[in-house]
Design a protein that fits this description.
The complex is a heterodimer of chains A (616) and B (345). Chain A is an alpha/beta fold and 616 residues long. Chain A has 20 helices and 23 strands. In chain A, the strands form five sheets. A seven-stranded mixed β-sheet of chain A has the order 11-10-12-13-15-14-21, sandwiched between helices. A six-stranded mixed β-sheet of chain A has the order 3-4-2-5-6-7, sandwiched between helices. A five-stranded mixed β-sheet of chain A has the order 18-20-19-22-23, with helices on both faces. In chain A, helix 1 packs parallel to helix 6 (165-176), helix 6 packs across helix 8 (196-215) and helix 9 runs parallel beside helix 14 (381-396). Chain A starts with 5 loop residues before the first strand and ends with a helix. With 345 residues, chain B is of the alpha/beta class. Chain B contains ten helices and twelve strands. Chain B has helices at 28-43, 78-88, 100-106, 108-117, 162-168, 182-194, 224-227, 280-286, 309-321, 328-336, and strands at 50-54, 69-72, 93-99, 121-127, 173-178, 199-204, 228-230, 238-239, 245-248, 257-260, 296-303, 341-344. Chain B has an eight-stranded mixed β-sheet with strand order 2-1-3-4-6-5-11-7, with helices on both faces. In chain B, strands 8-9-10 form a three-stranded antiparallel β-sheet, with no helix packed on it. In chain B, strand 9 and strand 10 (257-260) form a beta hairpin. In chain B, helix 3 crosses helix 4 (108-117). Chain B is globular, with a radius of gyration of 23 Å. The chains are: A alpha/beta (616), B alpha/beta (345).
């Protein structure tokens, strides 16, 4: 019997799905996100998972979660604290409870709250039975047994039936928040195409969860979140890694050059390799190299041959590629190095985010070896940041480091799909003949504006020449040990990077009365932006500016920073950009740092900024 | 990008660059360079389609002296760089020039992976069993106990056998030659150039400054004929001043042996088969020579056909491109709009 339900309208909801690494929480979250996107809500997601593929079942280190925020207005972050926690076992409850506010909804899979599972995570007594969850809106649901019951007549093994419990949970949540389920049905059809019995079982589990919500008296209220007012157009939900890969493909199409990706698998960058390997139709060649050094070497070799050479990695990989990047600096060839930053040093916390590779990107090579550095600010922005990195590499014949991080790479948001014709034209021209007034070819004769040398891939008769890592004489590129020439070439390579045309940094200050500026770069854009909005709603004036080009910095940055009594710079490192700003502009920025492997919360930034404003 | 090739009438002179050659006087590299410049015209490939990629070391200066396209890269990485170039530019002939330190020490990983992939590059390893450019330290092919500046009490590491290593790395073409034997060197270069896939050529090269005479027994008229086994496909493995030695495969042994030709049953004398699929034979050949270089085979140990990495990779891209609309911008638009999309009006 269906219980009539009251429908309550909400403007924003944050749900966290949490369970064992093998419980399919990432998939569940992903599907819920897709359903939500179809509805037209704005969304932002935060997956959080351990590096271990299957940590021991039921333990705290094995907990994997996926947080999704959705709203009827545009949002910038996946939310600080969940309104709803779906806990598939005691470990998931224990690992996440401290992040919930009182009054939050907790949906627990009671079947997993066995004596043994409780002991595994150090619960002396069952939290569902003592008063430790007092003040929360707890919904005990026998998820596993109800799933098994619903699939009793299905020709699937008990193990497969049990594994469908995430679909039961998804069905329940989809009902609770009035989500459209068609895309999930289509997804299950695709995913298990080879095993129709699993399609049927998963669909049945989903339906059972949905019907349970409809019939149980446990949920008296159903919720809805109306579509957000978003710019008209076609959208898709996209992760940063996928957007970055598509940005590279788009650059290749707009440059009319094939992509050659050299990559070695590394978390959290491997998904870019996976994505690009699917796009051979667009002329993409991917090579899984024997190591990080070979990956960048092959990319550089392809660039030398006239392709768009790209390598993707994370911090430890960039360290290994350093010598080859320096060679690319000397050869003055285009090369894009993607660093999806993770918590370091060394192996650090591979699945957790950090912004601590900035110093390495800016300074981490031998000799004077400047390169351009660009950072995306959100998942969808990875698409445009990739195009910008390619533009700089191709125009200025230089390595460019694209500094993504685990937060934007794995997080997702709706992306207003661009028209291909509106993307920048990246057409390049190769050297076709002699460039000297004497009718000779000079491989290091530069363009007077960009200071770029000719790109002269092999194959053109008469332009045969040799390049290499030894210092080159100006213009001819011949080996040179001349002191004055070396001094000139070092300064010229630096000037070439400084000559890159970088758009001015923009400041957002609706009040035009702010005396405090909060500066950021990379993935901190979301939490900083959300904190600024909250402060403004409470009547505070604050200005926000976000650095996209970390080298060279925007030409107007000095002037912008000088306008404010205080400049605050939150970073997920110990102050690496702050160090640069202080030394370059002699401005004593307030450096605010956190290295916890997790993004800043907006409320944390809000209270920090409030203090600064009050003391300014 | 490349234009149609002009009729070719090139000579060795056309392959000499305008750079002054800066190896030590008497270095074996001069002979290899001269042989290469003499050989390249017969390839019939225009200069602009030939690229030499090298690493670091004396041998790696080679590209500077050839009037082709060239890149002098970084230590040990030439095979990796050449892989990216070769895969993306099938119209080029790509050569890698490397040394025993460059290829077998710092770049060992790239060498073995290029060979196993069968990348379509020709790798010339100049083996002088010493570090020259850093002034005389022992190398990974130096004999154990080698006394050098860095090993005053003698080196304590066992050397690599480059031919054995290449065979173990699944190389489809493996050969050895000697700097001073221009005719033989040229014939091996020719075979390497003709091979589709990776060709690995070890060239014994004399460093007259830091390891002079390392290969003298293979060069001097009194010893060379009794020390060298000249491999010719289809020819019996007999050698010696008076053809007095024969290579045989003793029953019950995994390896090969050299015995008195007169005493050997002619049926026992091996006939060289460079195309044998099983690499065990070539490997056994590579183990014949001892530390004194007695019974050193030169020539092509192994030349078998298998698809190159280049062909396989380009084949996949080519096949995928058959599904292209022919308009990359249209395909890109379709790609961007794929997956679960929705429209806001």
């Amino acid at each position: 019997m269906t219980v009539p339900k009251h429908v309550q309208r909400l403007d924003r909801v944050v749900i966290r799905f949490a369970g064992d690494s093998g419980d399919g929480m990432q998939l569940t979250g992903d599907r819920f996100t897709s359903e939500t996107a179809q509805l037209g809500n704005d969304i932002s997601t935060l997956p959080n998972f351990p590096a271990e593929i299957r940590a021991p079942a039921g333990t705290l280190p094995g907990v994997s979660s996926f947080q999704v925020a959705f709203a009827d207005y545009d949002i910038l972050t996946p939310g600080d604290t969940p309104n709803v926690l779906v806990a598939m076992n005691p470990a998931a409850l224990k690992a996440n409870l401290s992040e919930l506010r009182k009054g939050a909804t907790i949906i627990v899979n009671t079947d997993e709250f066995t004596k043994r599972n409780l002991q595994k995570v150090g619960y002396a007594s069952n939290p569902l039975e003592d008063d430790s969850l007092a003040g929360y809106d707890v919904h005990p649901v026998a998820l596993t047994s109800m799933t098994l019951g619903a699939l009793a007549d299905h020709p699937v093994s008990k193990k497969d039936a049990e594994r469908s419990k995430n679909m039961f949970a998804l069905g329940l949540l989809s009902w609770l928040y009035s989500r459209p389920y068609e895309s999930t049905m289509a997804f299950l059809q695709r995913k298990f195409a080879a095993r129709p019995e699993l399609v049927a079982a998963n669909k049945a589990a989903f339906s059972a969860g949905w019907s349970f919500g409809e019939t149980t008296e446990g949920f008296a209220v159903r919720y809805e979140v109306k579509p957000a007012h978003m710019k008209p157009g076609h959208y898709r939900n996209i992760t940063g890694n996928a957007a970055l890969a598509l940005g590279l493909v788009a650059s290749s199409v707009r440059a009319r050059l094939p992509i050659f990706l050299g990559a070695y698998p590394i978390t959290p960058a491997s998904d870019i390799l996976h994505e690009l390997s699917k796009h051979k139709k667009l002329g993409v060649t991917t090579m899984q190299a024997e190591d990080e050094i070979a990956a960048v070497g092959a990319a550089l070799g392809a660039s030398y041959g006239g392709a768009l050479g790209v390598t993707t990695t994370s911090g430890p990989g960039v360290a290994l590629k350093g010598e080859t990047i320096s060679l690319a600096v000397a050869l003055e060839l285009p090369l894009v190095i993607v660093d999806v930053q993770r918590a370091g040093p060394s192996t650090g916390m591979p699945t957790k985010t950090e912004q601590a590779d900035l110093n390495m990107a800016l300074f981490g090579r031998h000799g004077e070896a400047p390169v351009a550095v660009v950072a995306p600010q959100s998942p969808a922005d990875c698409f445009y940041a990739a195009i910008e990195a390619c533009r700089i590499a191709l125009t200025y014949r230089t390595p460019v480091i694209l500094l993504s991080d685990g937060y934007v790479a794995n997080g997702s948001e709706p992306w207003l799909l661009p028209e291909v014709a509106d993307l920048p034209d990246l057409t390049v021209s190769f050297a076709q003949g002699p460039n000297g007034e004497d009718g000779k070819f000079y491989p290091y004769l530069r363009d007077p504006v960009t200071l770029a040398r000719p790109w002269a891939p092999p194959g053109v008769p008469g332009l045969e020449h040799r390049i290499g890592g030894l210092e080159k004489a100006d213009k001819t590129g011949d080996i040179s040990y001349d002191p004055a020439n070396h001094d000139f070439m070092v300064r010229t390579r630096a000037a070439r990077i400084e000559a890159i045309d970088v758009p001015d940094i923009e400041v957002e200050d609706p009040s035009e009365a702010a005396t405090v500026l909060v500066l950021g770069w990379g993935s901190t854009y979301g939490p900083i932006g959300a904190a600024c909005r909250a402060l403004r709603q409470r009547g505070f004036a604050i200005a926000q500016a976000h650095v996209r080009h970390l080298n060279p910095l925007p030409k107007n940055l000095r002037e912008v920073l000088g306008r404010y009594a205080k400049v605050v710079l939150p970073e997920m490192n110990l102050g690496q950009l702050a160090h640069v700003i202080r030394s370059k502009y002699l401005i004593d920025v307030v450096s605010y740092n956190q290295v916890r492997g997790m993004p800043f919360t907006s409320s944390q930034l809000e209270s920090m900024l409030e203090e600064v404003i009050k003391n300014a | 990008m490349p234009s149609a090739s002009a009729p070719l009438s090139l000579s060795a002179k056309d392959f000499k660059s305008d750079q002054e050659v800066r190896w030590c006087p008497g270095c074996g590299d001069y002979a290899i360079l001269a042989a290469m410049q003499g050989f390249l015209p017969e390839l019939g490939i225009p200069r602009e389609r030939i690229v030499f990629v090298s690493g670091i070391g004396c041998s790696s200066r080679f590209p500077y002296y050839l009037n082709t396209y060239g890149m002098h890269s970084i230590h040990g990485r030439a095979p990796a760089i050449a892989t990216g170039l070769s895969v993306s530019r099938p119209d080029l002939q790509v050569w890698v020039v490397t040394g025993d330190g460059d290829a077998l020490s710092i770049g060992g990983n790239h060498l073995i992976h290029a060979l196993r992939r069968n990348v379509n590059v020709k790798i010339l390893l100049f083996n002088n069993k010493i570090y020259g450019l850093t002034k005389g330290q022992y190398s990974p092919t130096s004999e154990i106990g080698k006394v050098t500046k860095s090993t005053p009490a003698g080196s304590a590491d066992y050397p690599f056998n480059p031919i054995s290593l290449a065979l173990g790395a699944e190389a489809s073409f493996v050969a050895r030659t000697i700097d001073s034997d221009r005719k033989h060197l040229t014939s091996v270069l020719r075979a390497a150039a003709d091979h589709q896939g990776s060709a690995f050529v070890e060239i014994y090269q004399n460093c007259n400054i830091f390891n002079d005479g390392a290969f003298d027994v293979l060069k001097e008229s009194e010893t060379r004929d009794d020390y060298l086994i000249r491999l010719e496909h289809g020819q019996p493995l007999t050698f010696g001043k008076d053809n007095q030695f024969a290579v045989t495969h003793p029953a019950g042994s995994f390896g090969l042996t050299v015995q008195d030709a007169a005493a050997a049953d002619s049926a026992e004398v091996l006939v060289h088969d460079a195309h044998a699929e099983d690499p065990a034979y070539a490997f056994a050949l590579s183990r014949l020579a001892g530390p004194d270089l007695r019974y050193t085979p030169i020539g092509v140990f192994r030349a078998v056909q298998r698809s190159s990495y280049d062909e396989l990779v380009r084949g996949q891209v080519g096949k995928a491109k058959e599904k292209s609309s022919g308009d990359p911008e249209q395909d890109l638009a379709a790609l961007l709009n794929s997956g679960d999309t929705w429209t806001i009006l």
